[in-house]
Each structure stands twice: as C-alpha cells, then as structure tokens.
Design a protein that fits this description.
The complex is a heterodimer. In chain A, about 0% of the residues lie in helices and about 50% in strands. Chain A contains no helices and eleven strands. Chain A is an all-beta fold. In chain B, strands 2, 4, 5, 9, 10 and 11 form a six-stranded mixed β-sheet that branches. Chain B has a five-stranded antiparallel β-sheet with strand order 1-3-8-7-6, with no helix packed on it. Chain B is globular, with a radius of gyration of 13 Å. By secondary structure, chain B is mainly β. The N and C termini of chain B lie far apart (about 40 Å). Classes of the chains: A mainly beta, B mainly beta. At the A-B interface, strand 5, strand 9 and strand 10 of A face strand 5 of B.
Chain lengths: ~110, ~110
C-alpha cells in the first residue's frame, strides 16, 4: 500500500512569494490533515478535512493560508504571501477508522 | 487547555532500557500515542493506548498509563542504535480527531 505522498519535499522561496504544497492521501482515507512542525517542536494542526469538508480550520492563519480538497481526495495548502516565520515542515496525514499515517513532509525555507 | 509535556533529551547506553515520560492535561483524551521521528523522515506511529487501559506491550515497547496522574511512559527494552530518534507523546479525544503533540524527546544512544 502506498503511503501519503507529498510534493515538493523541499522548497526555498523569498519572503512575500507564494508557495503551494500538494498531498495525495492513502486511498480510501476520508480524513486528511495538514500539520505544521516548527524546528524543535511537535506538529500542530492547521486544518482537518472529512472528505471535501474542512471540519477544523481554527488554527489556520486565514489571512495568508488557504487549503482545498477538491473531490475529497488530493489536497493543496497555499501560503500567499510567505513570511520568514512560515519556515517549517508541513506535514500531511490521512486516516480512516483510526488508522492514520503521516507523509514525509515538505520542508519550507523562507529567505 | 490541551497540553502535552515531555522532557527534551534522554541519553541511554546501548542495551539498557529507555524510559520516556510524558504528562498531559486533557482528562478527556481517549487515545494516547507514541510517535517516532528519525532525521529527514516522517512521523511513524509506534504504538497507542486507549485511556481505559493501564498497560500495553508490543515486543520491545511497553506503554504505561496512569490516568489519575495523566502520566504516560514509553519503555524501550534493549535499546539499539536504531532507536536513536525523537519520540513524540501525543493525545486525541476521538478516533480520527486532531492529535495534540508534545515537543518531543530526543533519545541519544551511547555505545
């Protein structure tokens, strides 16, 4: 079984530029999550989807972050414009019936 | 509020047992997890325990839960060099719910 796929694995941009991350969850997993992991910290939830519906986006900075999960499968997370403090690893995870898995993450560096 | 606390660093000699401790604040947490993160890799679920259990053993791993004190521990028997990683304690209220992570304990193996 293929795991959660994320791309790109690494991204370096200058501040004020836009950036987008893509996630392909495990087939059949209805629940999809985006987490952000700052250096030396544990992951923190940004947004959780049940199928195509965002059921928890309370921690998503909506002034610059947006996410979508069209058709309830793949998801994209966008930052526009990026700030220096957005440098982190962005992790996608998916689950179904309590069986979850994390992707390898996208390491974002904002210069 | 929800909070998970764990010590940041643990050093253990190869062959000894490692014990990583964690405390959490949310008494309604139903699922308690231990994740492993190796450099450059994603999060790997090691084991989890339901809040109505006191102990769970899986090969070299033993999880102990003291629900009264909201204390969770992970014991790794016969610690090997491959166990060197960051271990995250985490909790969630329900299956497929968001997961609250601690900051992680970096396990260093001495020869």
């Amino acid at each position: 079984e293929a795991g959660v796929v994320q791309s790109p694995r690494y991204k370096i941009i200058e501040k004020k530029q836009p950036v987008a991350f893509w996630c392909n969850p495990i087939s059949g997993h209805n629940t999809l999550y985006w987490y952000r992991q700052n250096l030396g910290q544990g992951p923190e939830l940004l947004i959780r989807y049940e199928n195509e519906e965002a059921v928890d986006d309370s921690q998503l900075p909506k002034d610059r972050f947006s996410a979508e999960r069209l058709k309830g499968v793949d998801s994209t997370l966008k930052i526009q414009p990026a700030e220096l403090g957005d440098s982190a690893v962005y992790l996608c995870a998916s689950s179904s019936q309590g069986n979850g898995s994390f992707g390898p993450g996208t390491r974002l560096t904002v210069l | 509020g929800e909070d998970v606390e764990q010590s940041l660093f643990l050093s253990v000699r190869e062959g000894d047992s490692s014990v990583i401790n964690c405390t959490y604040t949310d008494s309604s947490s139903t699922y308690l997890y231990w994740y492993k993160q190796e450099p450059g890799a994603g999060l790997q679920l090691l084991t989890y325990i339901f809040s109505n259990m006191d102990m769970k053993q899986d090969q070299r791993l033993t999880v102990l839960l003291n629900k009264k004190d909201k204390h969770l521990s992970l014991r790794i028997a016969d610690t090997q060099t491959g166990d060197s990683a960051i271990y995250f304690c985490a909790e969630s209220m329900n299956r497929d719910d968001k997961i609250i992570f601690g900051k992680g304990t970096r396990l260093h193996i001495l020869p």
